[in-house]
Amino acid sequence: MVIAAFRVAAVAAAPTRCDGLAVVDEVEVYQFLHHVDTATRRWGFVDKSGRWVIQPRYLDAYFFTDGLAPVEVEGSGGEDGTGLWGYVDNKGKVVIEPQFGYASDFSEGLASVTRGKYITDPWIYINKQGEQAVPREFRMAGYYSEGLAAVSAPNLGDREVYIDTKGNVVIRGDYSQAIGFSEGLAPVHVGYKWGFIDKKGKLVIEAKFDDVNGFHEGLARVYMYTDEDNAIRGYIDKNGRWVRSWPSDEWEDIYGDDEEYDYEEEPVNQD
């Protein structure tokens, strides 16, 4: 029996990172994963008809990006001590041998990996040959987008900075957290709030939000408290202006109990 366990969040949250429904060697492969049964709980890849394209044989797996997908196989030394991560192509062929404690998606030809545990061991960037591509190690390493990646390291003050593909620090700021660029802007955590910077490191949208997503088609989904008991969520444009928003006292009517969006409802406009 096939049990669906779709991982749709990454597609919705990071459209620049996922291939979505990708045509690869004339086989349409969903970037959704299944595990085959409750006994083995192994992961593989299916096409849009639900047919297995890559058989479910992995302890874990993630989306295809840049033609490769990270997969976890039996081994020792991984994050939880049970597996090691490598990369396969759309035929299931191993392209980069499993050797990493954790491995992230490829983006712009590079992926961040660790040879030890996710939290305690250094991160590096590799290319599609599995070679270290950026001559530095990091405490944490985000994905590359628009030529830059957010990283942290002890020698960088353990704050988030942005580097180029050669490891040079391009943007330095007092960011406790930072996310990749999309459409020329990147979310950064300044103090206790989120705002957006441009590629010169200038804060172009005030840090006043409590949660944010990157820009996509000119809009970013954000969330902010207006006082201790009330909040607003919705979408802003690149000038930081609300385009569509919903106050918290209307969330149940709009989202329902599970807070799913209902676009048939008329949103509250926020000037």
Structure description:
The protein is mostly beta strands. Helix content is 4%, strand content 42%. The protein contains 2 helices and 24 strands. Strands 1, 2, 3, 4 and 5 form a 5-stranded antiparallel beta sheet that branches. A hairpin with a 7-residue loop joins strand 21 and strand 22. The longest helix has 5 residues, at 9-13. It is globular.
Number of helices: 2
Helical percentage: under 10%
Element order: H for helix, E for strand: EHEEEEEEEEEEEEEEEEEEEEEEEH
Mean pLDDT: 79
Number of strands: 24
Judging from the principal axes of the Cα atoms, what is the shape? globular
Distance between the termini: 52 Å
* Low-pLDDT segments, ≥5 res: 1-28, 253-271
Derived from helix and strand composition plus strand pairing, the structural class reads mainly beta
- Main sheet characteristics: 5 strands, antiparallel
Q: Estimate what percentage of residues fall within beta strands.
A: 35-45%
